[in-house]
Amino acid sequence: MNRLSETGAVPVNCNPASARRPASARLTGLLCCGSILAGMPALAHAQEAAAPAAQPAAPVAAPRSNTIRTITVVGAERLEPTTILSYIRLRVGQEYTSAGADEALKDLGATELFANFSIRNDGGNVVITVTENPVINRIVLEGNERLKNDKILPEIKLSPRQIFTRSKVRADVSRIIELYKRQGRFAAQVEPKMVQLPQNRVDIVFEISEGPKSKVRQINILGNEKFSDGKLRGEFVTKQARLTSFFSSNTSYDPDRLAFDQQKLRQFYLTEGYADFRVVSAVAELTPDQRDFIITYVVEEGERYTFGDVKVDSQLRDFDSEVMSAQLPMKNGDFYNAKTVEDTVEQLTELAGRYGYAFADVQPRFNRNPEERKMNVTFVLREAPRVYVERVDINGNTLTQDKVIRREFRLAEGDAFNSLGVQRTTARINSLGYFQENFEVTQTEGSAPDRIVLEANIEERPTGELQFSAGFSSIEQFILAGSIRQRNFRGRGQTIGLSVNYSQFSRSAQISFSDPYIFDRNISGGIDIYRRDFNSFNFTGNNRNTTFEQATTGFSMRAGVPLTEYMSLIGSYTLNYEDVSLDETLFFSDTDGDGDRECDPLRAGRFLCDAIGTRLSSIVGLSLNYNSLNSRIRPSRGKTISLSAEFAGLGGDVRYTRFRGRAQQFWNVGNSGFIFSILAEGGTIIPLQERAGAGVDDVLLTDRFFLGEPQIRGFAIRGVGPRILTQTSQLDQFGRPVVDANGNIQFFTDRNQVRDDAIGGRNYYLGRAELEIPLGSGARELGLRPSIWADVGALWGVETPVLTVNPAGTPLRNDAGEALYQIPNTSTTTTSPTQADGSPNIRLIQSGTNIREVFLGNSPSPRVTAGIGVNWNSPFGPFRIDFAQTIRKVEGDDERRFTFNVGTQF
Questions:
Q1: Average pLDDT over the chain, rounded to an integer
Q2: Are 531 and 508 in contact (CB under 8 A)?
Q3: Sign of torsion, CA 802 808 813 819?
Q4: How many CA atoms does the CB half-sphere of 401 hold within 13 Å?
């Protein structure tokens, strides 16, 4: 392997200007340029110079040795000689001169096809000798770990089967270094080398030393007096490299980010009232070790301004200037805030748009008073000229049909242009999930000043999903799942899918199909066919025990129509066949002695015995939905509201009406990246039939609401609301129930020693407030999204059940049938329940376990929890972890301080 600088072409160094020197000097010059003018020997020139002047030559025509008679190319391998001759201007019949030869050499050099080349004149026979540049066999990159080959090779000019040239190598070296600078690696070095191969071929090797990523070691700010350096550094996107910034990629130097930080600094001062603020200079210097940068800002803060006269000058007839001026958020004497001015412009524009002035132009007019440090602002409202949509162009879609994209446009050809319509169109197309992230509808000038063209330049991405996953959760234990789904079936925007899930407590299979535009009409529809097997459970301590098994087979159909841009109405019909059963070996017994095994309330509880059986549910539903979220996947702005009603009883075996409501809103908190959201939800179910039996609720157990994790974090799954705790008696060494001094049986009350069965409720409410905390871009790239939250909710309204009390043993009696008592601290038995002094004796109980059921939690009193959580899109799949603190609870609720959920794909 040789360095290019050591094995390159031998430079041709010939100066034709020597032909114009004096004769003695010219002779030396010609000898120097022998490779070009070898056909003009020095001796012949010397003899001509020595001829006596007194004897004139005979009048015989001398041969013209400088006339080109032939031109021959020597050394060509790939190129044809005629091709090489076409590059130069020497031709047969011309006079050969050193200047012409020099021009020919320059022409050959300009082609960059030759490693060596020379021209020789032999008595009019011109010989051009060339050595062609080699052909590149392959390009090899060594040492590149941070930038892979697929990022570098498309950016360089050299490629296999091209002719090697030094200029291209130099250009590629510069290009590779520039790519590393964009990654913040300013110490990167690239050394090109060439490996000679047979048949005049070479391998080009770029040895890359990437070097460390250049960090911002220090940010200095000069000239600031009103705010500290730390306060101003907090406004920058670029951060100083510190141990605490390990997860942040904003510590690397980026010239574009430096310019953005200057804007951020100016925005900060303008929001604080410093209208004269300016950045005098911003300089980034490499440290002496060429590894990091030191950034220095020089600023002039100026004086702080307050608002002076603030008013509205409306040129729209429906708006009164004085009334609108009185409603402005800023008042005379308030500190000047440029952000408030911008927000006011947006609010006035939106307000005008609501009244039909889609083209209202709101311009703030400033009048600065430096003497009094006052900023007078006048908001001028005037109607701008109307602009119309000339056409809508869609480019880049190869699979998705045009109509799928066009139907999301809120503007059509001929409509009056409206920026709100463009924003809504962009949001709707982004929500499809078929195209690149951060898609935007672009605007270009039309054929006339009042015409505009809307362009959707899209990049399609795969919409088919084949997924196999496995995981573990604190709710379902081990989970296996597989699904196949196409979200843009046949490019029509339809969704078709098949999914199968299996865990220790649930199994399901489902086939689904949905079409947002049935028969190309603005009507959505879909159908799901499913089978779901669910094992309900209770807890004895931390042990989860299966109680009843519910197998549901059915289908659901739905159809919806939009009412407004953000509101839609959806109707549905669901038919379910349910089979609820219990394990007969655990919960059945021959209670009446007739040989038939039936559900035993002592083993299962009356509420479970009432739930078993088969039933057919026929449910009609209607829901009204409002959605203005800016993203369906990860919203940061907007709100969603849903109101639904279901009626079960159009045939079938169950009859009830169920109502639900849900509302959620998201806000961006300033420009800091914080996302705040609140959620409110509630529901009620009203039975339309009566079930026989005292203490039997008219709503079946399987139709009630349940509440707990994950709806309210800080409680176990189904850990909130009505429940039955089944307690057993404590036993002594003889297997007899333990009694107190009054003869009362002592039961286990520790939560880890009782059976806990949630029985659901008819009514519930739920509230949540959550603040998502932004991290550095490095953490965002890892998919980390921490948050702090608070949850509140309650579940109640079930009929108080008939509780079971089972005295397994009966009092011991003597032969006369009298009950026996034991005198405390003795082994003496007696038939008297009390002693002479009136103190009680202990009643003797036969061996056996007593059972007692306790009903708790049936209260609308709010349960409140708060905590912190982290969402992580880990390499193993989505991961959620929460740490919760219970602030308020009701007796019987089951707390959980720590919960997590994780899965993986393979």
A1: 81
A2: yes
A3: negative
A4: 12
Amino acid at 347: Q
State how far the alpha carbon of 751 is from the alpha carbons of 120, 544, 768, in Å: 106, 13, 28
Closest CA to 640 of 670, 587, 680, 671: 680
Residue 533 CA to residue 130 CA, distance in Å, equals: 83
CB 382 within 8 A of CB 315: yes
How far apart CA 723 and CA 796 sit, in angstroms, is: 10
Specify the higher pLDDT residue, 776 or 457: 457
* 61 Cβ contact list (under 8 Å, min separation 6): none
Residue 195: left if φ>0, alpha if ψ -120 to 50, beta else—which one? Answer: beta
Look at residue 315 and tell me whether its pLDDT is greater than 90. no
pLDDT at 30: 28
pLDDT for 476 equals: 55
Question: What is the DSSP track for 815-847?
Answer: TT-PBPEE-TTS--EES-SB-TTSPBPEEPB-S
- Segment 613-631, tens digit of pLDDT: 889 999 999 999 999 887 7
C-alpha 451/C-alpha 388 separation (Å) is 5
Query: Could you tell me if 782 and 247 are in contact, meaning their C-beta atoms sit under 8 angstroms apart?
Result: yes
Q: Give the pLDDT score at 327.
A: 86
Axis crossing angle, helix 42-50 with helix 23-32, rounded to the nearest 10: 170
Neighbouring residues of 413: CB distance < 8 A, sequence distance ≥ 6: 389, 390, 391, 392
What distance, in Å, lies between the first and last C-alpha atoms of the chain? 44
pTM equals 0.58
Tokens of 42: 């020095």
Check if the beta carbon of residue 697 is closer than 8 Å to that of residue 798. Answer: yes
What is the rounded CA–CA span in Å between residue 746 and residue 850? Answer: 9
Q: Three-state DSSP class for 418? A: coil
- Cα→Cα distances 374→269, 278, 364, Å: 16, 18, 15
141 vs 815 pLDDT, higher one = 141
Report which residue type is found at 638: G
Q: Which two tokens stand for residue 816?
A: 């006369």
Interatomic CA distance for residues 138 and 121, integer angstroms: 39
Give a three-class secondary structure readout of 7-51: HCCCCCCCCHHHHHCCHHHHHHHHHHCHHHHCCCCHHHHHHHHHC
Q: Which of 337-351, 589-603, 654-668 has the highest mean pLDDT?
A: 654-668
Cα dihedral: 53, 55, 58, 62 (round 10) = -30
Angle at 93 between CA 87 and CA 94, to 5 degrees: 65
**Sequence letter at residue 435:** F
Which residue has tokens 């020595």?
50
pLDDT of residue 172: 92
Single-letter code of the amino acid located at 439? F
- 324 Ramachandran zone, left/alpha/beta (phi>0; psi -120 to 50): alpha
Tell me which residue has tokens 């007796």.
Answer: 891
Q: What is the 3-state secondary structure (H, E, C) of 677-712?
A: EEEEEEEEEEECCCCCCCCCCCCCHHHCECECCCCC
User: How many residues can be counted in the chain?
Assistant: 906
The model's pLDDT over 829-878, given as tens digits with 9 standing for 90+, comes to 888 888 888 887 877 776 666 788 889 999 999 999 999 998 876 655 56
| E-only strand ranges, 563-612 | 567-582, 588-589, 598-599
Q: Cβ(30)–Cβ(23) under 8 Å?
A: no
Is 430 in a helix, a strand, or coil?
helix
Please answer whether residues 218 and 287 qualify as being in contact, where contact means their C-beta atoms are separated by less than 8 angstroms.
no
**Burial category of 445 from C-beta neighbours within 10 Å (exposed 0-12, middle 13-18, buried 19 and up):** exposed
d(CA 813, CA 846): 10
What residues are paired with 202 via a beta bridge? 136, 196
Residue 469 structure tokens: 């996953």
Alpha carbon of residue 673 to chain centroid: 14
CA angle centred on 547, ends 542 and 552, rounded to 5°: 125
CA distance 583 to 750: 27
- For residue 304, what are its two tokens? 């702080």
For Cα atoms 524, 528, 531, give the angle at the middle one, nearest 5 degrees: 170
What confidence tens digit (pLDDT) does each residue in 325-350 have? 888 888 889 999 998 999 899 888 87
